[in-house]
Every structure is written in structure tokens, then in C-alpha cells.
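Quiz preparation item.
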């Protein structure tokens, strides 16, 4: 399977060198777009919804971190000539996979991309396991609850109360007064899912409840369940269920009276 990549870099020489030198196809990647500033990058990411974003931090119009914060990005790699620790902290909060200093060595970037692909494949196996459990148990996505760990149970409670809002690991950790790294590690150890996987699975389950109402269209349901765009909702929904929201709804016989919106 090929994973899609959008690359955002304002320095034309750097952009062209990386585009030409990285062995995209050999890695199992398709470079579907390049952009030269943060706003163009934001528009491209929202339109193409790539699996991976590679971006500089300092960009015209808006920074790479501002761009990532506004987009449905699950996997990103930062390239930068700056070693500012505050940038690194922001990048970690946004779930950035790695932070490479310029000038970037081609082999180092390819190695980082290979490691990221392995991580994505591991996540996909997690989704496959969830789909299998769902089909055998008759539930949509069976999520572990009441784990007997007060921190994890409090996190699950936080997700249940706030899933409709634009929250993530950063907000949950701040609410629980824990470090993000500690909460992330503990949550994965106890539940077998990372925080974002659990949050998205919860949102998908809630979306199925809302689909039973034929007056609600897919776009309304996506926003009501905390997904930033209907397209991102469809992508996550299919990842968990193997079907698009429309396909799932048609099978359930609860299509809206006036289209999908």
C-alpha cells in the first residue's frame, strides 16, 4: 500500500532537492503535493488529507506548527534549521513523529520515513484487531473501560465528557495535571490503544448513534462528534469499520431524507 505525503517548504532549492532525491516509490510513498507557505500548505492538506506531512517550521503566512494545528494530520515530520526547545515542545504536543535539523541528510530523512511507515502499519494492525473484535462481539468498536487504574479511568471519563470538542492528549494531560509523555505511555500500556486511537474510536461510536436519526446528515454528525471536517471523519470511520459513513448508513437503512450535506 502506498501512503500519501504532502511536503511544505518555502526554500525552493531545499524543496526541489528533497523532492528529487528521496526514493518515494521505493519507500512505498506517493508525494501528492508540495507547498511553499503555511496557508498554501493548510489548503493542500485539507484538500488531499495525506497520511504524512513533512514541513519546515518557519514558513511565510503562518508557521508549520500553526498549519499542523489547524489540519487533520496524524503523522508529521518537522524539518528546521532552528533548535529552539519551545518549538520542539509544540511539535511534541501536535504528535509530530520526528524533528530533523537542516541541512537534512537524505538517508536520515528516508530512515525516519521508514520508521514512521512502520508506526502507521502498527496502528493499522491495531485497527484491524478492533474491526475483528467488533465483528465477533456484535459491537461497533468495543473499547476497554473501567480498567482499575484511576489515571486511565479518569482519562476515559475526560474523553467521554469532551469528545465533541477539539481536545487531544495535551488538554487531557493538563486537566489531569500530568505530563503528556507519562499519560501517553500509561494509557497505551493499560488500554492497548494510544490516546488518539481511543478518542477517535469513541467519536466513531457516537457518530453511529447519531446516524440512527435520518434527519442528520454526515457533515452535521462529523462536527457533532468532534471531527474537524467531514472528509477526515470519513477517513477515520473507514479506518475503524472498513466502510465509509455513507456505506455504513445505507446498510443500516437510516439515510437522511435530504442527501449527505
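Solution:
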Amino acid at each position: 500500500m502506498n501512503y500519501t505525503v504532502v511536503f511544505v517548504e518555502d526554500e525552493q532549492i531545499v524543496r526541489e532537492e528533497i523532492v528529487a532525491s528521496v526514493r518515494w516509490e521505493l519507500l512505498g510513498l506517493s508525494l501528492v503535493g508540495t507547498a511553499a507557505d503555511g496557508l498554501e500548505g493548510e489548503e493542500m492538506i485539507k484538500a488531499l488529507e495525506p497520511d504524512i506531512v513533512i514541513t519546515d517550521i518557519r514558513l511565510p503566512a503562518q508557521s508549520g506548527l500553526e498549519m499542523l494545528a489547524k489540519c487533520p494530520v496524524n503523522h508529521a515530520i518537522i524539518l528546521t534549521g532552528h533548535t529552539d526547545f519551545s518549538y520542539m515542545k509544540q511539535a511534541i504536543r501536535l504528535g509530530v513523529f520526528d524533528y530533523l535539523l537542516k541541512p537534512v541528510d537524505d538517508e536520515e530523512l528516508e530512515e525516519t520515513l521508514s520508521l514512521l511507515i512502520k508506526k502507521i502499519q502498527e496502528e493499522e494492525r491495531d485497527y484491524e484487531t478492533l474491526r475483528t473484535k467488533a465483528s465477533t462481539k456484535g459491537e461497533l468498536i468495543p473499547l476497554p473501560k473501567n480498567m482499575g487504574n484511576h489515571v486511565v479511568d479518569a482519562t476515559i471519563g475526560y474523553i467521554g465528557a469532551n469528545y465533541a470538542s477539539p481536545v487531544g492528549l495535551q488538554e487531557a494531560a493538563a486537566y489531569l495535571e500530568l505530563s503528556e509523555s507519562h499519560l501517553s505511555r500509561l494509557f497505551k500500556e493499560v488500554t492497548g490503544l494510544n490516546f488518539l486511537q481511543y478518542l477517535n474510536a469513541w467519536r466513531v461510536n457516537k457518530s453511529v448513534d447519531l446516524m440512527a436519526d435520518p434527519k442528520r446528515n454526515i457533515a452535521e454528525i462529523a462536527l457533532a462528534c468532534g471531527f474537524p471536517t467531514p472528509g477526515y471523519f470519513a477517513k477515520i470511520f473507514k479506518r475503524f469499520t472498513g466502510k465509509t459513513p455513507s456505506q455504513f448508513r445505507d446498510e443500516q437503512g437510516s439515510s437522511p431524507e435530504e442527501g449527505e450535506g
